[in-house]
Amino acid sequence: MIYLIRFIFTAFFVMCFYSCKSQSAAEVYKNEQTVISDTAFVNLKEYSVDFVYDMKYATTDNFLKAKVYDCAECYLRLKTVKALIAANIEFIEKGYRIKLFDCYRPLAIQKRMWKIVPNPQYVADPAKGSIHNRGGAVDITLVDKNGKELDMGTPFDFFGAEAGHNYANLPKKIKNNRKFLKKIMDKHHFKALDSEWWHYNLQSALKDKVANTKWDCE
What we know:
With 218 residues, this protein is of the alpha+beta class. It is built from five helices and seven strands, in the order H-H-E-E-E-H-E-H-E-H-E-E. The chain has a five-stranded mixed beta sheet with strand order 2-4-5-7-6, with helices on one face. Strands 1-3 form a two-stranded antiparallel ribbon.
């Protein structure tokens, strides 16, 4: 048995030696040290399976009444993904999880949305770009263990005073649901948009560049 083990070890060593022989020591070291930048765009699904998705702009079920994404994917900068996963872990510990409506939005899509609704009250002017175009914003809600959305008082993308965090004329349960979402997102460095209970910006992403990186649809 011991001879068989030695043979396997020796064969593995020889294979490794010849497969690495063409690489210099510097190249091997460089490959080992390769890491993904915090500002790189990544697919959230490749980092966690614990989110729920309802990517509205990949459907016609949105205020534009138009499908503007070719397919439903949630790309974000890696640092946004890390912070979002940390927040979701805390929600899961309390019996909930994050449901996503929108993530990174390429500038070309922002222009398409602006063409449909050229109103800065509803769509950010692509000349300036939004934090969605920077990969640092998410539109979200929470669902319970049965997948039922918590009552936040209005639907996603409801453009009225009732959607604001400071709107007072709401039942206590709805106010508490919004506060619960906001408290944990704040803890993980996401800042709420006052007029939209669903919108959160990663604070460190505010200075990132507007991007037009696109993803492939399978």
